[in-house]
Amino acid sequence: MDTFLEIFMEQLSNYGVGLLGTFAVAIAFSVFYGKNTQYNRFYLISQGFWVLFFTFVVLIFVPCLPLLNPAIQIPSIVVEAFVATLYGVSSGFFLASLFPNLPRKSLLFIVPTFFTLVFFATGYALLMLDVKFLEPTAIPTLLLGVSLIVTALGFHSIQTVSQKTIFTAPRIGLIALGSYFVLLSFGLISEAKSILLILYGLTAIVVLIAQIGFMEATAIGYQNALEMEKKKKTLVWDVAPFPILLTKLMDDSVVYMNAACQRVLGLNDEQKTTLPFSSFFTKPEKRIQLIDLTKQNQIVDNFEVELKLRNPEKLVWITLSSRIFELDGELVLYINFTNITAQKQTEQELFVQASTDTLTGLYNRRQFFALTEQAFAMSARENTPYCVIMLDIDHFKSINDTYGHDAGDIVLKHLSDVMKETLRKSDIIARWGGEEFIVFLQNTLPENGVVPAQKLRQAVEATSVTVGDQTIRFTISLGVSVSQTPDVAIIQKEADLALYHSKENGRNQVTLYSPDFAQMPTEVESNQ
User: Fold this and answer.
1) Are 5 and 68 in contact (CB under 8 A)?
2) How do residues 356-370 score in pLDDT, each as one tens digit?
3) Which CATH architecture does the domain made up of 356-519 adopt?
4) Whole-prediction pTM value?
5) Which residue, of 130, 137, 332, 505, is most buried by count of CB atoms within 10 Å of its CB?
6) 3-state helix, strand, coil in the chain (%, to 5)
């Protein structure tokens, strides 16, 4: 083992500078971060130095192999030929870096192979010329040095935004290394390990410094490009005829708002960035819903939101489109929207016409069916009771005959107003037809449904309607259902039978349905 260590240390002493130097320079060229033309150039140069690094590994360890295993005997001419081959491969990578714009596959194999063959052809030609002042064993070193010089001379400088050349120093470092190898091959200088170490070290350092400079220049270029792009977008947004705003995803603070958006929201220049956009929402939770949808779908269109404006105070409806992108290192929500208040008002008017009774403003029979279906579903989920009240005006035909149909309409509208004032907002009130009305009481036991029914009866009895110089007083009869089946027809029939019972027993009263009523007729004349 002592002999192995001695030989190893001797080889390390001979080639250690080359091993350490090529490693440092290869690392310096390898760390280039940009996937672009310069990345290809630096990558190929680093590959060349990695091959040289491997060459010195071979020169150090091959002489030691016979000491580890006597059966391994490698002739020196084989080692010299292998080293010359590695020099040729390294030169191939160096010269391939002159063509960084070629396809990556060509750069990694075809071009280096071509220049490697050129290396061997040139070496063979020099060998055949038998140049007296050039030893045959020095030809690989000569060609390696020439390759480094050509690579450096063909290395185009990159200009920073300040027009300062930042890759001049690395180019000089490569020329210095190449010149050293050329002079050494012609015997013009003797091998000086300290000088070679300095050349390797300085080259590695200036390459790293240049890389940092290029990174800074590229970052500045990117920043300028982003600023320019931002200005272009802002210019387009400023003149856009539709409202546009940007809000921070984190806290909803407004980053940008164009003039069209200011006009819709009624804000001046000082106010436009002081309030979060969601503060205008009548339902602030809609912002969370909007963000979730945008994250899920990337782009959201036709998202409807109702806004409450401050100046002047009014409600408006908008339909918006949104997407999330990064601005100045922070995620923002881009929103553009259209004012659809007029459309919503038209839709509401059409809905009212289709779902309410024209005379009284109460729900019509069709809307009552639709709403009770929803109420049945909620009661099933929450396991809550319900009941229905049917009512009509006592002797309504007599009112029409005595005071006229216009007076009868006034009485119907007055009863509708009393019902809305007396019953709960959660109760579903509808005009069933003629002088008949129906009420769905949610979360109410049937026996408890008698209480609001009595309250309503008393309120009607205590009121009157004035038509011209005449005062009309009237009463109502009511019936309350008991079944808990989710079928409007069944519970309406129960309430109707209970109502008939109230009529039969003197009117102006409330009756809770009983199964005994099932055989009773369901129609009651209006004048009874």
Assistant:
1) no
2) 999 999 999 999 999
3) 2-Layer Sandwich (3.30)
4) 0.47
5) 332
6) 60, 15, 25
